[in-house]
Amino acid sequence: MRLFYITLKYLAVTLWSVFVIAPFLWAISTSFKDFQSVTGGATYIPWVDFEPTLDGWQSLFKSPARGGVDIVEPFLNSVFVTAAGSLVSIILGTLAAYALSRYTFKAGPMRNGDITFFFISQRIMPPVVLAIPFFIMLGKLGLLDTLLGLVLVYVVLLMPIAVWIMVDFFNKVPQEIDETALIDGCNPFQAFYKVVLPNSIPGIIVAGMFCMIFGWTDFFFAFILTFTEVQLLPVAIVALNSSITPWWSLSAAALVSVAPLVVVAFIVERYLSKGNLSGALK
Amino acid sequence: MSLIASNLSLKPDEQYHLDDICFEMLQGQIYTIIGRTLSGKTTLLKTIAGLIAPDSGGLVLDGNDFGSIPVWKREVAMVYQQFINYPHLTVYENVAFPLKQRGTQKAEIHNRVMNALSQVGLEGFQSRKIQALSGGQQQRVALARSLVKEAKILLLDEPLVNLDYKLREQLREEFKSIFNTKASADSILIYSSTDPVEAMQLGGQILVMDEGRILQQASAKEVYENPNSTKVSQITNDPAMNLFEGMVGEGKIILSPEIQFDSPTHFKGLPEGTYTFGLRAVAITLGEIGFPFAIELSEISGSETFLHLKHNEINLVGLLDSVQSFSIGEKVTVKFDISHLYAFSTDGSLKSSPYGGLM
Fold this sequence. Notes:
The complex is a heterodimer of chains A (282) and B (359).
Chain A: H1 2-31, H2 35-39, H3 55-59, H4 72-102, H5 112-124, H6 127-141, H7 147-172, H8 175-183, H9 188-196, H10 201-217, H11 220-224, H12 233-240, H13 247-272
Helix pairs in contact in A: 1-13, 4-7, 4-10, 4-12, 5-7, 7-10, 8-9, 10-13, 12-13
Chain B: E1 2-10, E2 18-26, E3 30-35, H1 41-49, E4 56-61, E5 64-65, E6 76-79, H2 91-102, H3 106-119, H4 135-148, E7 153-157, H5 165-186, E8 188-193, H6 196-202, E9 205-210, E10 213-219, H7 220-225, H8 230-235, E11 242-249, E12 252-254, E13 260-262, E14 273-279, E15 284-301, E16 304-311, E17 314-320, E18 331-336, E19 342-344, E20 350-353, E21 357-358
Parallel strand pairs in B: 3-8, 3-9, 6-7, 7-8
Antiparallel strand pairs in B: 1-2, 1-4, 4-5, 9-10, 11-12, 11-14, 12-13, 14-19, 15-16, 15-18, 16-17, 19-20, 20-21
């Protein structure tokens, strides 16, 4: 019976792994193909089924005029907007979460729990509900189709995630640690940045990761709020999908769009697994 | 140096957390606040530290208003019951933290940190991370950090409560020797505990707290010998002092038709009437001659046996200084050492004590 369950477990894990990895393998394989290899029937193994070429990857750096797709600028735009949006969200979100965790607020019938829920309720609304107000507001501010406008929108979208994660994290950090810092001569702000913040790095990393994932993968707002001046990577990749889709370029671009998240996940996983941060407070 | 509290009160909800607290504490003394859980001990310590602002009343240190000084500028140090340290710092950095905050010179920080670590028996541990230490060692780091400040007021909030029995006994002895040397000579040391044994062992002055009020403030010896109320007698004894209703009349104490005995000599002059009598567990043993009781439960604790005894409405806890086994419901003859009997009025105030006669 035990053998049966072990076999079943490994079978499930194998099937899931194939399900997850197969699209990546497919994209990697396609990114090294040329027009002939893509359109001439199913091919799988390089050097056996088809002759690999770097055309797809090289096209990422060439302008459309030279037959390329040029995703360098959208890529850099996405890096800037995601990094700036995540950074500002983490800074503001961490401060807001600390206040919500440590101080009692009363706003009419609302208490701390309600205010925290109010933050996260921004994410419960369907994006389309927010799209029109955002469009009008950015238009009036002259920030439509600008990087700054996108950063502002992403801060609004990402900060609730940071607040939600960090409130929960700070609630688990004993208040006595702040009090000890105050008794040891720190004013409230010093107690926060000298003691509470260094012990909240795992929470900040998790919140940062979520912000980056949500920011990096957003297509909807990047599509609605930009036209010709600014283009983000998800929009640029979708724009490649047309009647004459260059599948090899599209695959290479898709892999480029996934790469930063894979790198971040590996770094964060190694950092968290050191064990000197998570669960540090006994 | 003296710390004077006048009429400190705090009522954040329906109940008083501090109710008209008044005291005067002097430099070089150990003050133990003893009380049950939620009696207001931690609230009082946090109020002295400046972490909680009272609704009314004030604190004066050396003739100066102490209550208006922000917590980070007060000359206080505090050790919590939960082994609170800074997990991201090493042992050395933890102990040095308050000195760095003050801007103390590096060389002096080093000397004082090493001295404090040696005081608490943690030499050689300075480069360890906090997580690599046991609970007892973590609490020693917290104590070293509070000692290194050489604060005017040292607050210890049940610092041994989360340690296992053996370690608690060991650290209690070490704390006592530390407090009796440098720490208590230069500062006012305030220690809170729920454990009467701990309070008595530390000696010094005892403040008995209940429901936010100070019920009695006196030396450990005085509180032990003359608890001024039934509540104090319950809080300052482990197990709690046995209390039972009875009458004094015609030179006799009458607890029930079967349990009557001559009044002890220290009850001489006590008016006839109804009283609540108190007798510590240690004064209730088994004997050949005595009163019939049934055993409800027997508990072996170390080399002693606690007996939970019942006779009609009278429930008592007795203590045998040996390990013995009993079966539940077993009939035994119980002997009272009436030379240690207390008499309290029916409203709970002390009327006669074996150590002080009539009150």
